[in-house]
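Need a sequence for this fold. Nothing fancy.
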């Protein structure tokens, strides 16, 4: 058995950093240690053939998304992304281990995860909310960062106030209700970033919603 297969995601949860005012979020810095980050990154990169860059319709024109993504989930946990139905692929072994750690630490039964890969700072995601109908709204979305640090922006729908948070490799961001109902978030371009970033966002979905 190789050392990779012996890696454990056990361990205590550190205290979150701040409450960020009225924002319904928590950040746990260094939620994953260096070894966990390295092994998880290597495994995700090893199944790069499962990633794609689909085209979505914006203002009556189709545009390829500026990042690559893959959706993994349990049976019956397909996901609707910008009017595209993405069938769930089985979670790789170390993604399952990370999911199980989140379940233990926060008492949430996550059954799907969207994995985004950003090649460098020129790849991004625009303003949006993770408010798809199949997501259980009372369940927090858990976001894990790997690789290059990037700015994460949050904007209130009415006041338009923007909060900028830098997320580092190994950090965990928890977005609680009503985050998706009253705020949008984005990962803007950063020309000075020349290395890749991977982001895993775990969600709890209504099973068989699209069947």
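Here you go.
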């Amino acid at each position: 058995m190789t050392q990779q297969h012996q890696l454990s995601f056990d361990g205590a949860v550190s205290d979150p950093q701040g409450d960020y005012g009225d924002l319904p979020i928590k950040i746990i810095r260094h939620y994953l240690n260096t070894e966990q980050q390295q092994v998880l990154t290597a495994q995700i990169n090893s199944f790069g053939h499962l990633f794609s860059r689909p085209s979505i319709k914006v203002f009556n024109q189709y545009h390829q998304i500026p990042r690559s993504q893959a959706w993994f989930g349990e049976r019956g946990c397909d996901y609707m992304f910008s009017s595209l139905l993405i069938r769930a692929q089985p979670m790789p072994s170390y993604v399952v281990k990370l999911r199980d750690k989140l379940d233990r630490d926060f008492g949430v039964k996550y059954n799907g995860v969207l994995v985004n890969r950003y090649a460098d700072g020129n790849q991004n995601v625009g303003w949006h909310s993770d408010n798809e109908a199949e997501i259980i709204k009372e369940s927090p979305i858990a976001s894990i960062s790997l690789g290059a640090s990037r700015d994460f922006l949050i904007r209130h729908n009415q006041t338009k106030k923007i909060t900028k948070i830098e997320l580092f490799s190994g950090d965990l961001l928890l977005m609680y209700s009503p985050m998706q109902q009253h705020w949008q978030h984005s990962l803007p371009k950063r020309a000075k970033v020349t290395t890749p970033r991977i982001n895993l966002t775990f969600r709890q979905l209504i099973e068989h919603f699209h069947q």
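For context: The mean pLDDT is 90.
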